């Protein structure tokens, strides 16, 4: 059976008793650019049947498919790395989105043991990284009042319903509250099929086609053999796994289902003049002179693990690994997360071309990070300090007093100050600061460090080597236990551009900055 609609027939199901299918309605369509939210949830504890989704591959495919539209100003893409439901709610409340991708694990149960009724759930990430079931009604409430016009549920069984109650499925519930276009999955879908669907859907939408046209193009893409599939077949690597046998995914073309009563209506009003963003601003987040990728894809598990280590009480974290593995990107994203949670952030890099010497850094601390009261105290007492340790203690006591103990120090590229033989720091000022932080213990600041080699055992309290960078066909993991200083993985070949890094199948988290 070939995919695609019967000529003249709609591609979606009608839900409710609204307006009939037919001519499009163009009343008060929002102007572009089209604002897209790519929200993914990847809990640590999926069941054996559903397994773990290849979230980074889907994100990279969506980003690449929309790349030209982003560069030309037709598309504005947001890719958060926090899969908690309260963060999802906050994004919908604070920002305007026209298209939302909700990617993760979905469940539909014919009978709810507690209520005795069928229902649908989506598995968001809980505070501890484990799955948190959120019911369809609660998800629908999060969309109320939002400007969202299309939701794509890249989740198993998100379009499934009960014959006894047709509005119990997640897709049906979202369409029922007034979202004009909702795409759900009738049954469980393979990762490869979901990724192909998302990529083709975005590529078609990037050409400013209608949603129904994009859905049909994406369904056809599920049946097409990709160059990667061709290579796998030639190399004989399609045995032993359902998902690595391309032909077995073809029958899933029919699983994506579009709910819409007006499928011919445009998603937005495309009659606007796009404003291409500045490339440096589009792909770089400037963190006190340290360039970070604005769209952070990959290293999801490491980021969550580091947050859990901090929550357990660790105050100093070291990320090691060869150049180009994404140490700065990961630590910088972690620092931004902590900053968003209310921790003031202080940053310095030991890189040779960094804007500040150590002496200039100390001056900047006084000017930019201390209020008048604490600045005057530092300047008054500095003359009484006889050692670097006393200076560090003076600064830290006043910074912590001003921030009420919520302070993050991000110190990058320390390998330029280390002895290659044993990893010991050869910088008296920095050694003094780290020693003062350790002396303060749990009352001290959070310290994030990056280096290509492990520090001497006395220099830092918690070290983690960074594993191999993300590839679309593999998983990434931190190798070694806390305190293990042996870095692992191979360095990346450097690429000049963020999009090029994605097209080369490298995670932006591993982009060499």
Automatic annotation (TrEMBL):
Domain AAA+ ATPase: 313-459
Any single Pfam family the record assigns to this protein: CHAT
Region (Disordered): 1-29
Stated name of the protein: AAA ATPase domain-containing protein
Organism of this sequence: Candidatus Kentrum sp. MB
Lineage: Bacteria, Pseudomonadati, Pseudomonadota, Gammaproteobacteria, Candidatus Kentrum
């Amino acid at each position: 059976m070939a995919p695609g609609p019967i000529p003249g027939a709609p591609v979606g199901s009608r839900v409710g008793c609204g307006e009939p299918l037919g001519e499009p309605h163009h009343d008060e369509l929002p102007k572009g650019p089209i604002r897209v939210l790519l929200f993914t949830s990847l809990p640590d504890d999926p069941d054996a049947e559903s397994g773990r989704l290849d979230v980074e591959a889907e994100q990279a495919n969506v980003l690449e498919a929309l790349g030209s539209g982003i560069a030309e100003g037709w598309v504005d893409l947001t890719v958060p790395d926090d899969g908690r439901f309260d963060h999802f709610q906050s994004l919908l409340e604070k920002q305007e989105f026209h298209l939302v991708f909700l990617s993760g694990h979905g469940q539909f149960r014919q009978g709810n043991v507690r209520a005795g009724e069928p229902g649908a759930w989506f598995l968001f990430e809980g505070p501890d990284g484990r799955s948190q079931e959120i019911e369809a009604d609660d998800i629908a409430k999060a969309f109320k009042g939002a400007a969202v016009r299309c939701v794509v549920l890249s989740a198993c069984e998100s379009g499934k319903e009960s014959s006894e109650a047709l509005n119990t499925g997640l897709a049906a519930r979202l369409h029922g509250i007034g979202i004009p276009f909702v795409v759900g999955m009738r049954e469980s879908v393979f990762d490869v099929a979901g990724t192909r669907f998302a990529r083709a859907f975005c590529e078609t939408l990037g050409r400013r086609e209608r949603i129904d046209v994009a859905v049909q193009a994406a369904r056809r893409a599920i049946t097409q053999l990709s160059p990667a599939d061709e290579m796998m077949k030639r190399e004989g690597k399609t045995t032993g796994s359902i998902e690595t046998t391309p032909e077995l995914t073809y029958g899933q073309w029919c699983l994506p289902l579009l709910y819409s009563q007006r499928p011919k209506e445009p998603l937005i009003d495309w009659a606007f003049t796009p404003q291409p963003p500045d490339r440096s601003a589009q792909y770089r987040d400037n963190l006190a002179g340290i360039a970070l990728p604005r769209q952070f894809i990959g290293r999801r598990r490491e980021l969550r693990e580091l947050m859990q280590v901090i929550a357990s009480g660790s105050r100093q974290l070291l990320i090691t690994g060869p150049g180009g593995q994404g140490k700065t990107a990961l630590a910088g994203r972690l620092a931004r997360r902590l900053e968003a949670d209310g921790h003031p952030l202080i940053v310095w890099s030991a890189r040779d071309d960094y804007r500040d010497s150590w002496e200039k850094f100390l001056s900047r601390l006084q000017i930019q990070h201390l209020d008048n009261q604490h600045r005057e105290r530092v300047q008054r007492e500095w003359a009484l300090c006889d050692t670097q340790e006393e200076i560090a203690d003076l600064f830290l006591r006043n910074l912590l007093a001003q921030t009420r103990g919520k302070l993050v120090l991000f110190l990058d590229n320390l390998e330029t100050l280390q002895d290659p033989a044993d990893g010991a720091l050869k910088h008296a000022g920095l050694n003094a600061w780290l020693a003062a932080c350790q002396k303060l213990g749990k009352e001290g600041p959070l310290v994030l460090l990056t280096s290509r080699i492990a520090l001497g055992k006395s220099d830092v309290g918690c070290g983690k080597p960074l594993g191999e960078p993300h590839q679309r066909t593999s998983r990434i993991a931190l190798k070694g236990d806390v305190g293990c200083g042996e870095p692992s993985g191979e360095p990346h070949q450097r690429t000049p551009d963020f999009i090029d890094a994605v097209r080369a199948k490298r995670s932006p988290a591993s982009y060499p900055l």
